[in-house]
Each structure stands twice: as C-alpha cells, then as structure tokens.
Amino acid sequence: MLNNHTYYSLHYGSLSIKELLEEASRNSFRDEFGWGSCVLTDINNTSAALNFIQMATAYKIRPIIGIDFRNGIDQQFIGIAQNNNGFLQLNYFLTAYLQQGKEIPKRAPNIEDCFIIYPIEKYTGFPLKPWEYVGVKHNQLFNKSIRNREIPLHRLVALQTGTFRNKRDFNTHRLLRAIDNNSLLSKLPLHEQSLPVDAFMNWEEFAEKFNQYPKLIENTAFILNTAQIEFDFNSSKNKKIVGESEEEDFIQLQYLAYLGYKERYANANRTSEKRLEKELTSIKKLGFTAYFLINWDIIQYARKKGYYYVGRGSGSNSMVAYCLYITNVDPIDLDLYFERFINEHRQSPPDFDLDFSWNERDHIIHYIFQKYSSNHTAILATYNTFKYKSAIRELSKVFGLPKKEIDSLIYSSHNQQDSLTQLTLKYSKVIQNFPNHLGIHAGGIIISELPIHYYTAQNFPPKGFLTTQFSMQEAEDIGLHKFDILSQRGLGKIKGAIKTVHQNQNIDISKTIENIEQLKKDKKIKTQLKKGNTIGCFYIESPGMRMLLSKLKADDYTRLVAASSIIRPGVSKSGMMQEYIKRFRHPEKRKYTHPKLAKLMAETYGVMVYQEDVLKVAHLFAGLTLEESDILRRGMSWKFKEENEFHLVKDKFFTNCKKYGYSNEITHEVWRQIESFGNYAFSKGHSASYAVESYQSLYIKAYYPLEYMVATLIPNSQKKEGSCRVSRHPEM
Fold it and tell me: For 182, phi and psi rounded to 5 degrees?
C-alpha cells in the first residue's frame, strides 16, 4: 500500500510501471467514484515517477510519489510527498546524499510537506513529529512494543510492501540481488534480499490481516487520502525567460537576428526579409524565443573562447539560426524549408546539435551549468538495460555454471539442457530489458524554468555534472526539451592543424577557413573531391564515401551535400543511391516517375535524397500543407508517436493524389520512395553542415598536409604550447 517498487529499484524490483499499475488496479480499495490509490516508492530512485503519474489515470489510480531511502538494502525510512513541493523536497534531500556519497541517516530531517515512515525494526523510541509514523507489516503485529502500547496507535501505519506478485517475481528479485552482490545464488545472505511477506495482497486480504488494529488502517487511509501530486504534461517546462521578460527577450532576438542578417546577406532582398519575418513570428508564437537565445549565448561564449563548433541538425533549416551564427548553412541558398524545423503542428521541439571539439566540450557544459544555475540545469540520463546475452552471462555466474557452459549457452544451440541451464534461459528472458544501471546521455542537457528537483532527484557521476534520473523520453513527455552539446574529433583536428601551421610557418589560416564561399571555389579542393582523396577528412574519409565521391566526380558543394545524405542506410538500401549515380553519369537514362517530380527535384535528378524531399513532394505533388507534410516525414521515424495523426495525413496523401489524377501505380511508387528512407536520411541542412566542416578539413589537407596529418595522428599534441612543432622534409 504505502511502499511499492518497480524495476527502477535497480537490482531489486521485478515489475514494470505498467505491471505495478495493473496490480494496483486489481487490488486497491476503490472509493465511491471507482478510484484507487497507489504509492510508488522506488529505492533511492525517481526514474519511474513521471511515467507513473502520467499512466495512472488510465487505470483509475490516484498516483502518490515517495522514495524508499536505504543504505544498500538496509531501509532507513520512507518519504511520501504530500504534494508537489513535498516531492521537490524529497528530491533535494536524496540528491544531496547521492552527491556527497554519504549514507542515509537513521533519522529523517524536517522534510517539508512529506510524511515519514520508519520501519518498526528501526524505531528506537525517539519522539515522533506530527508527520512521522512507524510502519508495521502484518507479520510484525505481535511485536512487543505494539502489544505493550509503547508506540501510540495513532502513530502506527500498516506498512505493506509491494515488491512481487508471485513466486516468479520473488525468484527474479533474488537473482537480481545475487547479480548486485556478485554472489552465487546459494551464497546470497538473507539480509541482502527481501522476504516473501513483501508480496502484493488485495484490499480484503489486507483488511483481514490488520483487523485487530483498525486504527492502523485508518492512519494508512489518512496518508493515502491526504497525499496528492499533479503534473501538467502539455506545456513547455524549459526556461522561458532569459532576460527581464518574454517581451524583452523577443526584442533582443529580433535585434540579434537583423544584425546578423545584415552581416550574412550583403545582397538582401524582400524575399529573404519576408523569410526572416516569418521565422521570427513562428518562434514567438510557439514560445521558442528563450531556446534560440540560449543557443546563441552558448555559441557566443564558444566564439569568445576561440572554440570551434558546428551547428547542425534540423536547425540548419532556420534562417534565424544562420543569422545568429548558430549554424553556418544558408537556408535560402539551399532552398531549405523552415517548417522542417518548426511548425505549429509539430509537437516536438526545435533541435540544434552543437558539436564542439572533444577537448573543449566539457568547458562548454561547465559554462552552461554556471550561467543557468545547477538548480535548473542537468544532463539527461539513459537507461542501460539487460540485453539477452548479457543476462545469460550474469545469471550463469549466479547459478555457478563453468565458463565453458556459459559460452555454450551464449554462442551455441541449446538442445541439451539441464535444470540450471533451463532456469538461466528462462530468467534471462524475464530480466531482458530491465534497467541495469543509469548512464549519461551523449550530450542532452535540460534547462528548466522550475528547479530540476521539481521533477527528479539527481545522480552525481564521475564527470561531475548533475544528471537526472529520467531519460530523454520522459523529459520530452513533460515538455523539457534538450540542448544537444556534443563532441567530435574532427573539430579538434582542424584547430590543432591551424595552431601547428601558425607555429611552423607563422601563417594564420583561421580566417581563411571561415570563408566557406571561397573554399567552395578552390581548385585544389575540387581536385581532391573529384578523386576521392579525402582520407583523414571529416565524414568523407570512409572507403564507401571515397568511392561515391569518385563516381560522382563531386567537385562542388551541392554534390558533396548530396553524397553526405545518399550514403545513409535508408537511401542506399532503397536503391536510390545507385539510381542517383546512374542519373548523374548517364543523363540519357533519366526516367522520372512523373514530370512534376522531375521539376521538383531537378537538383537531385528526380531522386529523393533528403528528408526535405519528402516535404517537397508531399506539399507540391500531393497538395498537403507544409505542416501536414512534416507530419508525414516524421511518421517514417521510430521516434514518432502521433500514430493516429500520421494515418490521417497518409490517407489525405492518397486521396489528394487520386483527386489530381495520378494513377495508382504512380502514387504507390512515390509513396514507396518516401517510406523507404524516411527513417534514415539526413535533412539537407544537416548534410550541408557536415559538408562545411569537410571543406575546412580539405583546405588544410590540400595546402598544409604535414600539419594536418600531425593533428590527425596525434590529437593530444595541442595541449601544450609549442608541442606540435614539426620538421619539414626539404622536398616538402
């Protein structure tokens, strides 16, 4: 009732959130309106809290959140949030101890808006505060202190724990505890595992167990009826205001955008001005002003520090981002749709991927935590789960199987099985996909308006940046949209090579490589691209890419951008990469599904190469709005959740094609092309961002090959001034 665990009580619990709610739905006491209550109190963990709250309504369960505070498996007390502030305070308390690496104290401090429950075996007679209780399991009712009334009845609650439903769950729990202790199951100490008494029971059975002490049930019901927690899952939770107000923030964004516009567009015209105005209007309307300003601030800091960066992702489709120098891709030049990035029908947030050099990224993250406060900033966690083969290996050890048998189970057929191997295979399937431990997202950072602890407790991993206890999925579900701060070695190579050139030849090429338009025209770079002489250059050095570049004779920016996309699995597997090469090399063999497609995709010879091609075809060929077209594009992705909306748009696609007089054959072929690569193809802006960095690498390799190869082969050589000086061969 008051203490229930999911498998996010790592290496302890055996139930998913869904299974816990199903159990609560079957066994809870129901009020006159048919609603029951369930308290989730995972051990030193809040990973399941938000999903639990979100899912509970479907089961007519009032969700209540708490934390089971333990040192290892040794329970100290349970904290149950009376309201949202109580959950906030519990998270603050748990985070402080996880951050400091201290043990949980035996006595709880004054935690605001919380009930505290001590297990009776840990109660030593200290005075109880009004919000504190002593919890008793049904097998503890004959405890001396209860019989002798040493603890007042009004301070006692029925502490029935829900950890397992049946024997299989109990066995799973014991196996998880053995894995956690790196112990044989037969050697697992009793104090390192729970007891069968911690099984779920229905309300009638619960009432029967405690019928001699109705006051305990009454006190339990008081906690269940008092505690209440609510979350809004529909509005954005990101930091909303950077300056004094939202209005001032937008004025600032406008000013910065138009300032950059004057710098970026020497030949400005009404078309580009209208595009800028349209984007700014959408950004304001959808509430993304602060999101843009924060990304701009991060980039400004990087530029002041001399850090190299690449802004990529669908954000490259934004002219505002280009004018703010968040990206270096001109969306006007490449005819990129802003709606691929932001539109009113797209529920997912804008997406900037900001790449920094591998040895400078942590400095950027440190700045973000300092600037926006560690109370409001956190790195997202990931759930590292048990895979089937790793589960077999772990459980085989627990059962004491020798290495030869373990390898046989993993790599060979399982025709002959004794009882232990059968159990190993059986329970490996049970714990498959169970959370094993919390990891760290590659670069996802959230900056919230309210304190992070309003939503989660935090871990403190070795790198020293506080990390949420939930993943990107849960963050998006509640409206916390991440900033992607990533790293790559390509930027480090470029910076290292520039530094070495300066040390070696006293030449500063830093400004030269920023002039992308000039690099696009450079003859040496064109020759390198055409020949596929790109070893060591970012993104274009693989054998497959070098072969593709030589086949395409890709000596210009447009073809390099196209190559960056068609090398992707979705495009190549669909056969469209081969078709693109054929149409490029043999113009006479260009056959188009429909004349309209030839016109729409003249740049790519009628072949869908980019995600934007889906937008273009859906919008201009099938008559969908740009917003509907983006729904269609996203519908091909595994991340997409709005299935009903997708199917409505899909139906409209086919209806419109019929209305426009296209044959069924043509319509289904166009749909096949859309469907075949939508999940894997790059956005055009993303490919273009990569191409910019490729050009910079190519320039240095073409003109300063020695310095570039040193930076490539010895990436750590730039740490100390003067450490990269190299000797040149007389012939070089």
Answer: 50, 50
